[in-house]
Amino acid sequence: MHSDLAVVDTYFSVHSIVVAIAPTGNYLDWGSCTLRRILAEAGGRVSVRLLWGPRATPENARSAVLDFDPALVVGVGHGLRCIYTVYSRRPFLVERDPGLPRYCSRDLNLDLARGRIWHLNSCRVGSMLGRDMVERHGAVAFAGSRDPFWFYIGDPPCSTDASMAVFRAEYEFTRQLLLGRSVGEAHEARLRAYDYWIDYFTTGPGRGHRHAPLIVRLLTIDRNIAVAYGDMGARAAAPGPVPSIENLWSMGVLMLGGISLISSGGGEHRVGG
Predict the structure, then answer these.
(1) Residue 164 belongs to what domain range?
(2) Residue 69 has pLDDT above 80, yes or no
């Protein structure tokens, strides 16, 4: 495990409160470590309750939402159209679905949806669960994916551009919200971030990667399945200056906490769900 990933619970300076659910294992490390970096970039603008690794349980997630009453909940996990799971694939959010009785026989924790913005990076949750969290359970807004979310695991988590590209694009939604942009603005920025990374691996510095065509395909799929519902004018934090993704990543290098991440080659890929 990378030394910068060993944090269990992290707080940043108080302005707006966010609960972040970042389980590890079951191929979730790639998304969770990238999410943690996105949250670190927010600096002192927000207070983040980060549930990392084995601490990302349904019980801890529910307690964090109730105790901290966050404006935004962002989470990594596996899922289906009616369920979002956390550490060890344990259900956290479930909407009853007669078509999937094995997984979704009853509602679970949907009382937490009301009054918040949710961003869940999990397969298929945007096809039903997320939409109904807004339309039936009072969530302010929701962002997610309507079909399986694909990502590249040829390099260790957070070690190269290739290992982070799809997550950097997806979590641009959360990054923009933390910088004070509206849901609608954040979703548009999310789509532009996908375009940026597609260009990066098509004609930019990443074009020489031996799996560049595969990474472009994964980015294109994930862009096409990205959805957002609810109040497009809602905000999770007060507006502030927004550094562009080009400024952060123009050289393919990010310095954060003394760690330098530089583009390199890769290996295989995996579908996440």
Answers:
(1) 3-272
(2) yes
